[in-house]
Specification:
With about 200 residues, the chain is of the alpha+beta class. The chain has a single domain, classed as q2cbj1_9rhob like domain (Jelly Rolls, Sandwich), CATH 2.60.120. The strands form three sheets. The protein has a four-stranded antiparallel sheet, with no helix packed on it. It starts with a helix and ends with a strand.
Length: about 200
């Protein structure tokens, strides 16, 4: 059976049997070992090069402070990419798989039917206690439905390095802590159902 066919079947099964139920039941889910080490390393090396070459700029705040960088509120450095840029083949492959996963969710996402995505945001927290205070990705109904995050942190120890993504599910009495470990893909609703924060990072994240 051709590899592409196997991958299609696996992605469809993961979407229908895991991603959709988890989003409906608890509002988020994650997949570990998504790309595998070899391809994941290719994505990591490209992102490291962007960081090394100074291509990332301070993340900006939305809302009343739109366009303003306030590092005590948001400490990441970012770059928006489409995946078709030179040298971004591995990133493009990752984005293609994520697109397929979301596409296979189809009309099963409640009121949502995702037709397109924004560019991908490459983000780096440079350590020194930088994080991102509690916020909602899409508080005002701007069209964003699902936030997808792919983590690239090898040998990450959250007790030592911090950097946990903490989700505060709406109406629930618990919080969900997601460690930003290498080759983990996270999905969650982008709207007010999932306020979240990036806790202070003490290593480059």
């Amino acid at each position: 059976m051709p590899l592409g066919h196997i991958m299609r079947l696996d992605l469809e099964r993961i979407a229908l049997e895991y991603v959709v139920p988890c989003l409906h039941d608890i509002g988020f889910c994650y997949l570990d070992n998504f790309l595998g080490e070899v391809v994941g390393d290719c994505v990591l090396e490209r992102v490291k090069r962007m960081h090394r070459d100074g291509e990332l700029t301070d993340g900006q705040l939305a809302g009343p402070s739109r366009g303003v960088a306030k590092r005590h509120l948001r400490g990441d450095q970012i770059k928006w990419i489409g995946g078709t840029e030179e040298g971004c083949e591995a990133i493009n492959f990752l984005l293609t798989l994520i697109d397929r996963l979301v596409m296979y969710c189809g009309s099963r996402l409640g009121k949502y039917y995702v037709k397109e995505r924004s560019k991908a945001m490459v983000a780096c927290y440079p350590g020194n206690g930088t994080g991102y205070v509690r916020h909602v990705d899409n508080p005002n109904g701007d069209g964003r439905c699902i936030t997808c995050i792919y983590y690239l942190n090898k040998n990450w120890d959250s007790k030592l390095h911090g950097g946990i993504l903490r989700i505060f599910p709406e109406g629930k009495s618990y919080v969900a802590d997601v460690e930003p470990i290498f080759d983990r893909l996270l999905f969650f609703w982008s709207d007010r159902r999932n306020p979240h924060e990036v806790q202070p990072s003490y290593a480059t994240r």
